[in-house]
Amino acid sequence: MKVKKFEKNGIVLLNKEKGVSSFGAINRLKWLIKANKVGHAGTLDPMAEGLLIVMLNNATKFSDDLMKKDKEYYVELEMGYETDTYDAEGEITEKGNVNVSQDEVENVINSFVGEIEQTPPMYSAIKINGEKLYDLARKGIEVERKARKIRINYIKDIKIDYSENKVSFYASVSSGTYIRSLVRDIGQKLGTFATMTKLVRTQIDKYYLKDAMTLSEIEKLLEQETVEENRDFVKRQKIEMKKDESIEEKIYGILENIFDKESNVKRELKIQDIIKFKDIEEILEYKEIVISNDKYLKLKNGMTVLAGFRKLENIKGYRENTILKVFVTNGKTQKREFKGVVKIIKIGYDKVYLKRDKYFL
């Protein structure tokens, strides 16, 4: 049976397990469901775990939008030493005594809440003069990095275990924040040094780790579905073959084509259910506009004009460069159908000029 590619555009919430790279995780999912393209909304280092938003097919065009969203992490650190990577996988570069009270630890950690300047670690993918910092770091080269403004929205549930010099907490941060650097700066300010020993991403914007699945969970469910699918396909083929043995090959070819189509439609629907697929329409948080089919056809060619702008209640108050979700009412079902996103490029006295944006059907 020929298996059709998974062509739906949207996202999957993946619970990345420790020891797997983000690139490796999303490409494994791509292979499992036979997607055309994959991307993600923010890298997790191999030692990190947790929420990875996987963009499927044309939804990859919006990976930057989700990358800019705030994120929450569960963090564990160990006081008493610092490494060159600022995490437990690096070489120890500094050691210190742990002689701080609970109040001191909590006060220092909470002092980082708000907008602060943060220097990225040498072991990061940031480029300086065309070279990634971690490539320079592996060569033993350290270069000056400019501090960047980042924001720590909150830090909560701080717990301290003095028996192992461990501290844990949850932190909500802006895009571009390095938790390893935050941990390192906490250790420096405490005077004990500190190293990140565990990192779990628990939230990105409105998406939560509790709703995500691991690759092994997805793989197991897909394997079970494939066995049932193949058994059903073979059973149906055998029933039809008995009807006319003399033209068996011809019938087989016809039936294979028919059942391929049926099975692939069912397969895509079942895959959506298994991976808890979220359609691209759900992730786009733009205002909505309903247009006629004629205007939609013109937008497919690039641009259209809506006359009588002052009478259009659903786009009153919008400005140029506003992004909108476009819907067209299906003439047969009378249901709205999502068609893509457009940008307002010009507003006249009584006209608004729309141009198709980076996602349009």
Describe the structure.
The protein has 361 residues and is of the alpha+beta class. The protein is built from nine helices and 19 strands. The protein has helices spanning 22-33, 63-67, 102-110, 133-138, 179-190, 215-241, 248-274, 280-283, 293-300; strands at 10-16, 38-40, 49-56, 71-79, 81-83, 92-95, 114-118, 127-128, 131-132, 148-161, 166-173, 194-204, 207-208, 278-279, 287-291, 303-307, 323-329, 336-347, 351-360. The strands form four sheets. Strands 1, 2, 3, 4, 7, 10, 11, 12, 13 and 14 form a ten-stranded mixed beta sheet that branches. Strands 15-17-18-19-16 form a five-stranded mixed beta sheet, with helices on one face. α1 packs parallel to α6 and α6 packs antiparallel against α7. The two termini are 29 Å apart. Residues 239-259 have low confidence and may be disordered.
